[in-house]
Write a structure and sequence with these properties.
This protein is α/β, with parallel strands linked by helices. The chain has 10 helices and 11 strands. The protein folds into 2 domains: 110 residues, Oxidized Rhodanese, domain 1 (3-Layer(aba) Sandwich); 193 residues, Vaccinia Virus protein VP39 (Rossmann fold, 3-Layer(aba) Sandwich), CATH 3.40.50. Helix content is 28%, strand content 21%. Helix 6 links the parallel strand 5 and strand 6.
Length: 332
């Protein structure tokens, strides 16, 4: 790394005991070859420094407080990458409190705190995670758990959840992990995205999260509505939920609405006009890419029961998000 790009501020160094007392997450940047011990704590996650570009979507959100565990050889570059605003000019800074060096004293402290895993110790499930899914997932998950409880007593095909425009796959992985932890082991989860690398990256993500047996990926241009309709119609008897986050194609929403079977859940999260009708943010910049107030509620007014229609602010820039969930009701 160019030395001229080094941060001008210094991140404090702390002990493992100080991290433990702080009660915050710890991002363990050690390489696999450096893992002479592992942690049992569910607030410690190892993402090797060499996998930084491939797995940056697994890093904490910009509003989450955390610390770094660094190897002595790479600590300067690691600290600089997380704290130097010049390296991430369009992003809010990470809330990194301090860093801990991996030294014999750190290992001794981990043993004293009884947070060192014995060799081959199974990890508790769901696995520890630093990343945060879209806040829509916190509203959607309880409804899917309720649906899973109902489906468990019905001789129906394995329910399928679709994530349209899945991107890195954090939201669909979150649902897969949490539902499997609740015993919904027959459920299937499908990420759909146009990205050609999605097959490799999201399936690798699913394997790391131990949900690969339940996960599949479909590469698809979601603007090709006939293809989307055929995909959903093939699952007419088992589609349980179709959702999407921060992605808007109005004709696509109509296709999903018309294809969902009785009991099927539609969930969407996207930027929406504030109550005063004044958009004050740089992105999205075009009105067609912003939901009108209660546009989704109007679109799903017939044949659906609206379970959620709220407006929240995103954690990045305070932009209003419409969090919307509806379920197709039984006719009559």
């Amino acid at each position: 790394m160019d030395s001229t790009a080094k941060a001008t501020t210094t991140l404090p160094r702390a002990t493992l005991e100080a991290w433990h007392a702080a009660g915050i997450f710890l991002l363990d940047l050690r390489e696999q070859s450096e893992l002479t011990y592992e942690f049992t704590s569910n607030v410690v996650v190892n993402i090797p420094w060499s996998e930084q570009k491939l797995r940056s979507h697994e890093y904490p959100s910009r509003s989450t407080r955390f610390a770094l565990l660094c190897s002595p050889a790479n600590a300067d570059d690691q600290v600089d990458w997380f704290t130097n605003a010049d390296l991430h000019p369009t992003k809010h800074p990470w809330q990194v409190e301090f860093y801990v060096l991996d030294t014999p004293a750190t290992r001794a402290a981990a043993l004293k705190l009884a947070i060192v895993a014995a060799p081959d110790t199974p990890r508790p499930y769901p696995l520890a995670r630093l990343w945060t899914p879209n806040s829509l997932m916190t509203h959607l998950l309880p409804r899917l758990i309720q649906a899973a409880t109902t489906a468990a007593s019905a001789p129906t095909p394995s329910p399928v959840v679709f994530d349209l425009g899945c991107g890195s796959g954090r939201d669909i992985m979150f649902l897969a992990e949490e539902l499997q932890a609740q015993g919904a082991t027959s459920w299937r989860f499908c990420g759909v995205d146009h990205n050609k690398t999605g097959m490799a990256t999201t399936t690798a993500f699913a394997r790391r999260r131990r949900v690969h047996d339940a996960y599949s990926f479909v590469q698809m241009d979601l603007r090709k509505l006939d293809a989307v309709q055929r995909m959903l119609e093939r699952h007419q008897s088992d589609v349980q939920c179709v959702f999407g986050c921060r992605f808007l194609h109005r004709d696509l929403l109509t296709v999903v609405r018309d294809v969902l079977p009785v009991g099927g859940i539609f969930a969407w999260s996207h930027f929406a006009m504030p109550a005063d009708g004044q958009w004050r943010w740089q992105h999205p910049s075009k009105p067609r890419d912003i939901l009108r107030r209660d546009e989704l509620a109007t679109l799903f007014a017939q044949d659906f029961d609206v379970l959620l229609n709220v407006f929240e602010s995103d954690s990045d820039h305070g932009r209003p998000l419409n969090q919307f969930i509806a379920v197709r009701r039984t006719p009559g």
